[in-house]
Write a structure and sequence with these properties.
The chain is of the alpha+beta class. The chain contains 7 helices and 6 strands, in the order H-H-E-E-E-H-H-E-H-E-H-H-E.
C-alpha cells in the first residue's frame, strides 16, 4: 500500500468506471478510513432537546445494488436538467453523461438535519475515504450533485431505500471503482491550489 502523501498526490476525480465489483474487504477498509476521520463531535447539535451522541455525527450509506444505483443516477440526472445552475445543466446535456459514471460503489454521506458540524464532519470522512481508495488501488470521485437531488420530502422514498436514516440530510456522495479506459467527462488535469502564507 502506498504512503499517505503519495495517495494524496495521486488521487484524482475519475468519471468513468468499469462494470466490475469492488471486493467487500476493500470496501470495508475504505469505510473504516472514513470512520477514523476527525470530527467536531462536541457540536453535533440538538434533536429536540437531546444532545446527539457522537456515533450519530454522520452516516455512510453504501449502495452496491445495480438497480438502486441506477435509481440514484437517474434522480440526480433529472435534477441536474432542471436546476437553475448553468454548469449542471450543461454537464447533464452532454451525450452519454451519467452523473454516477457507472461506478460500482456509491456512498451517500449524510448528517443529522439538526446537526451543527455535520457538513464539516462529512467532508472529513469523504477525504479520508478518497485517499484510502487511492492507496488501495481504486479510483474515486467526490460528488456534490446527489446532495441537491436527494433533498426534500419528494425524495424520501429514495433516501430511505438507500439507507439514509430519517432526519438525516445527504451532504455528498463518493463513488469508487476501477477506471474505464476512457475518462471523457474529466474536468482536466489536477493542479495544486490555494495560497500559502508563512508567519515565522
Amino acid at each position: 500500500m502506498m504512503d499517505a502523501i503519495g495517495a494524496i498526490i495521486k488521487r484524482k476525480s475519475v468519471r468513468a468506471y468499469e462494470d466490475r465489483p469492488v471486493p467487500g474487504h476493500v470496501v470495508e477498509k475504505i469505510i473504516e478510513a472514513g470512520q477514523w476521520a476527525p470530527n467536531a463531535g462536541q457540536q453535533i447539535g440538538l434533536r429536540g432537546l437531546q444532545l446527539l451522541p457522537i456515533e450519530y455525527a454522520f452516516q455512510i450509506s453504501v449502495s452496491r445494488n445495480k438497480g438502486l444505483r441506477r435509481k440514484i443516477n437517474d434522480r440526480v440526472l433529472e435534477t441536474m436538467n432542471r436546476v437553475d445552475n448553468l454548469f449542471a445543466r450543461q454537464r447533464a446535456s452532454l451525450p452519454g453523461y451519467q452523473p454516477l459514471f457507472g461506478a460500482p460503489v456509491v456512498m451517500l454521506l449524510s448528517e443529522p438535519d439538526q446537526g451543527m458540524s455535520g457538513a464539516v464532519n462529512v467532508a472529513l470522512v469523504a477525504e479520508n475515504m478518497l485517499i484510502a481508495a487511492t492507496a488501495l488501488g481504486l479510483e474515486s470521485c467526490y460528488l456534490g450533485s446527489p446532495a441537491h437531488a436527494l433533498t426534500g420530502d419528494s425524495n424520501t422514498d429514495l433516501t430511505r431505500e438507500a439507507g439514509v436514516p430519517e432526519d438525516y440530510v445527504v451532504q455528498c456522495a463518493i463513488i469508487f471503482g476501477y477506471a474505464a479506459p476512457e475518462n471523457r467527462f474529466s474536468l482536466g488535469e489536477r493542479t495544486k491550489r490555494g495560497k500559502v502564507n508563512y508567519v515565522d
